[in-house]
Each structure stands twice: as structure tokens, then as C-alpha cells.
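ingest -> fold -> write
write: protein_1
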Amino acid sequence: MAQSWRHDRQVPPLDPAALERLALRYVERYATSRAKLAQYLQRKLRERGWSGDEAPDAHALAERMASLGYVDDRGFAQSRAGALVRRGYGPRRIGQALKAAGIREEDAAPAQQDARAGAWDAALDLARRKRIGPFAGVAPDRAGREKAIGVLLRAGHDLATARRLAEARPGEIPERDDR
């Protein structure tokens, strides 16, 4: 029975230099937040172990990477929120995604404000892609409207926006409600 070559080699436990190299390699390859970098480093420490006396603080290393400018939570939040808005997600879902990525409230605030400002356009984009309301071929029945409302709610849009779009007649795009 052939074994994978990866199972044959022993990976040495991490030391301070190796842990720092892992952190640098991760931040150069991926856009990340402090929390996600710390989670990655903690996982690597569990997998490979530590060769020193006292295990290092992964959060402290992530903070150091941020202080050096390698990790930017605010920039990460802006980028992630912009990508989600372009996919049609609403402010609530964007807030959940940023919280899951470990973004602090003060770093997430500008991104969430932008998401709220672009919520109507994001809802229209999602409705266009899913053929809901004004972008549907025919007016849906009650079950179809409820399904469309569910799609918009799961995407993070508020109930009023979801209803306005789901109940719109095909071809008639409702005006933005700026109340």
C-alpha cells in the first residue's frame, strides 16, 4: 500500500523564527485580519507544537504584524464589505461577516456605513440576478413572493426593502425609499 510522501516526513516543532516566518508568509499571501491571523497561528502551534519553554502568544504576534502595517483590519473590512455589496448582500449580512472575521467595531464602522449607503443598489443587483420582482418574467404568486422575500432577507436586507422589491411588478423598478 503506497503512503503519501507527506506522512513520511517529520515536521519539526515551531520556534520563534519559524512562527514569524509562518505569519509573514500568511500575510503576504492572504488579505486577513488580526483575529484570523491569530487563529491561523494557534492552529499551526497545535499541529506542530512548540520547541521553546513557554508557548508564544499568537495574538501578540498578530498585533505586531498589524503595527508593522502587514495587517490592516480597517482595509480588510472595507474590501470584504465592498465585495459583499457587489454580490448583493445587505448591511446585516455584511456586519455578520465582519464580526465572524474578528473585525473590531471601530474598524468595521466605516465599511458598515458604506454598506448601508449602498444597500438599495445591492438589493437591486441581487433581485436582478435572482429574477425577483421587477426583474421577473411574470408576476409571482404568493408563494413566489414569500420565497423572494426570504432570499432578500437571508442576504441581509431589511424587511421593507425585501417586500418592496418582491411585490414590484415585472418591469417596474420601485423608487428608492430614502426615509
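write: protein_2
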Amino acid sequence: MKRVQGLDIPQTLEEICDPQRLALVVYDMQIGILKQIKNAEAIVTKVAGVLEAARSAGVRTFFMRHMSLPKELMGAFSYRMAMAWQRTDDPEKVNPWFLRDSPGFQITPELAPRPSEAIFDKLTMSALEGTPLAIALRDCGVTSIALVGVAMEIGIEPTARHAADLGIVPVIVEDACGSGHADAAQRSIESLKFAGDAVFTNVEAFCQAVKRMPG
């Protein structure tokens, strides 16, 4: 730990992942989204491992869900985004995939949130935009967040950048982050590493880091 002007500057993974100052954000591990990636089962297993370690260490945990609005409430940008994702140039053919309480909207049962864990719904790519997450993190004195889930190139990268802009250290558990497009995901990883804001680790190292810290 470095120290300057009365501030502790965490350096190692163990220092950054102090369970008292860390939160785990499980990003969009929803049934309908997991169906769209090739290695969903492997990612679920990796995320489950991180989740188990975080729970054992008493790490505050938040689940995010991507939510679609009914077509009557969609605006121009929502239609543009849906048209791009669904590969259609006809807005009439857009189908809201993740309506609240639809089967695809639900978090995969292998990762069932506990009553002590929060679930926040969002319309955005950043988990910190338009949700209570930033308020909850700030109120708990959280200084770093571990990110797992899907997809790296769609939601993990913008959440990590947003966290850094808020002064929160993003810890990306790389092998517990799935992707829909491998090349795009790799570009996201390389860009984040170049910027230097995020800390990259893997499931094994993360689990050891939170385990070694006094709870």
C-alpha cells in the first residue's frame, strides 16, 4: 500500500479487493442473453466461482439485468439500437427481447441472487447510468468493483470506463466475462489495458485475493 497526503493508494490485487471496500457486479447473466453466446455454460461456471468466493468473503454483490421497454415507450434511439442488434432496417419488425418478467429477462437459475443481494434493471450499457448502483456503492464506501458477466464488448467495457470516471477502480475478472464477438471483445480488453484504469485478473487469482484479506 502506498501512502500520500493521508491517502492509502492500493497497489496489489489483494489491497484493491479488500472485501470491506469491494463490490461484485454480476452483469446481465440473463437467460435470453446467455443464449446468444457460444460458451455460455463455461461463463456461468466461472461466474459462479467468483460469486461463491465473494459471498464467502462478505463482498457486497449486485446483479444487473438489461430490460427492454414495450414498443409504445421506445424512443428513436431505442429503435435504432434494437434495429442494429436485430439486424433489420424496418422499425416495425423490432421485437423487445427483454421485457420485464419475460423468460429471457430472468437471471440464469445457477446464479440465483440471495435476499442479501440487490438486482438492478437498466436500459443502458453502463451499469452505473440510470440505476441506483452508483448511489449504493458510494453510500457503502466502495472504492473498487469486480466485474463479471456478459458481454465484454457491450457492457463490461462501458461500465469499467464509467466506474473509473467516478473514481472507482474497475477489476475485470477476464475469464468470467463472456462475449458475443470474440474479436470485438479482444479490442475492448486491449483498449482498457492501454488506458490503464482497470485491473485485470482471473477467477483463481480473484478468489485467492478476497480469501486472503481479513473479513
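write: annotation protein_2
The mean pLDDT is 96.
Helices lie at 13-16, 31-34, 40-57, 76-85, 133-139, 152-165, 182-195, 203-212.
pipeline exit 0
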